[in-house]
Prior knowledge:
33% of the residues lie in helices and 17% in strands. The chain is an alpha/beta fold and 623 residues long. The protein has a nine-stranded mixed beta sheet with strand order 12-11-13-14-19-18-17-15-16, sandwiched between helices. The chain has an eight-stranded parallel β-barrel with strand order 1-2-3-4-5-6-7-10, surrounded by four helices. Strands 8-9 form a two-stranded antiparallel ribbon. Strand 3, helix 5 (136-148) and strand 4 form a beta-alpha-beta unit. The two termini are 31 Å apart. Residues 1-33 and 298-309 have low confidence and may be disordered.
Amino acid sequence: MNRNKRLLAVVTMAVTSLSAQLAVAAPAPPVDLGPNKSVRPNSAAIRTSVGPLLGWELGISSTVFGPLTFSEAAGLADALGLATIEGDSRQKVSPQIDKNLDFQLQPDGIAAVKARLAELRLKMVAYRVESIPSDESSATKLFAFAKELGVQMIITSATPGSLPTVDKLAGDNGVRVAIAIDGDPKTVMSAIENAGPHVGVAVDFGNWIEQGIKPVDGLALIKDRLMAVRLRDRNVLGLNGRDVPLGTGVAEVQKFLVEVAKQEPPPQEDPSKCVNCSRPYGGTKPLFIALDVDPWQVVIATQPQPGTSRGAFAELWQQADDFERVVRPAMGYRIEQDAKLIPITPTDRIPADVKQKIEAALPKEALVTPKAPRKLLIVDVAPAGAYYHDTAAHANFAIQKMAETTGAYQAIFSNDLNNLKYPKILDYDAVFMNSGDGEVFSDPEVLSGLIRFVHEGGGLAGLHGASYASMDVPEFGELIGAQSGPHRTETATLKVDDPNSPLTRQFAGSPLTADLGGKGFVYTDEFYHFLPNGPYSRNKLHVLISIDAEKTDLSPWRVRPDKDYGLVWIKSYGKGRVFNCAMGHTPTLFETPALAQMMLGAIQFVLGDLPADTTPSALLTMK
């Protein structure tokens, strides 16, 4: 779907959803989350994945749509694919509740706001007020109100009169305070110099640029006090500029975000003690980022009005897309710093009897003699927010043993993603992604290095969770052949789609396939059911193994109308070679001789030593 059609579809869903939802009176306090009325598209988008990785929450101010109420703005924030919003004390709650969203709101009004947030799976991360009440009683009510709504930060336009009192209330309630900078940053920074860590600042890019301040220069003054930022980019410094797409103007948004990423907490744990390496060592530094539009330059509407080209919704949608582009270097910086500290999954956690089963099943000789000494780089990093596969240890053990026994290659294990940058990646003949999922390829240099490497003649092998690496980066999905899809551990009948491939010909005489005449086998694993609108397609891939739809109950998986669930494939990519095996959630893969031999064949294929037909399966059936 192209961008315009996708935008129209989302706007239509949003407006339809709003019409239905706002016709209902405010509900009573829910016992649970209640019905899911979210229309948020693409859960794998970068606009939401920055949260687990960096602690950054991307959203909008609820006042960005002008006269709309908080409830209406919340629906549009959800339709923009955003999971967070900033509330405002001056805004009405909803068309049915003509009360301001402030600490004087009655319990039924508070319940309605909470219910609205719950049904949209939306978080009110920030809450803006003109000022924090000077009397402690009212200030206490404000903080209690914010805490009740799950607010993490109160943004105030005025520096509080008694910072020690505010600092204490912030600490007691777990709600930080960010003072909006509306002028020279030095003034606010001087006022909060002795405040505790619960007090910081909020900045507005548009405001700074109009005053002639470059955001990166302003960041140097406020340092680690930054808690919230409103993003806008303009073509020139000063009052005579105009808004431009994020990353194309004087704001230097990309550079700003990288500098903020460098403020992330340093490692706090001993990397050698890492058990589940998908978590960050140093934690994250919370930051609320609000997309913003200039109300003088756009029509405040969910859709363009007659005689205008764009509305606020379209502008914000474009900004969200632009944000996903400019934030990637910052995400990449964080991932690369973590990856340097996350060790390759050790094999000493594998029980001795399992190691014996794996060693007994592994092939003892190379399938073909290597044309030259080969180096295989194995990566199993699972950055913050990813699912860590414990069976990465079993694959590492098998890959190392096959290297030692067959002499087909040298196995080099490293999670340093700088190895994938060009030209460093040329030190290797192929890369093996061992269930490394999550935001692995956020850094454009890392991804472009791998893509160029394969396109110019290198190899890439992926095992199990590898297709879930950077699901928000479509270029990687196109490279490896698939991305997201529902999955669970189940038993299915698999068929060998190409029994003549050098990677699969051993199945014909294997005990594994004896019951099905060498053409298939019954197997238990966590099978991915790749979506029909993703990159998986027999028009692009030479499928080796797939789920046999005629012999497997697929009623729980109405994912693809064609019932085509490929699990193992190879493909050509430029001059290079790609292999992917979506199986491997259990140790059984390397405990089964026929499958273990397939994995050795895959390694020799991507290394460039084992020739194999990569003609897309759909083209083979046309011959």
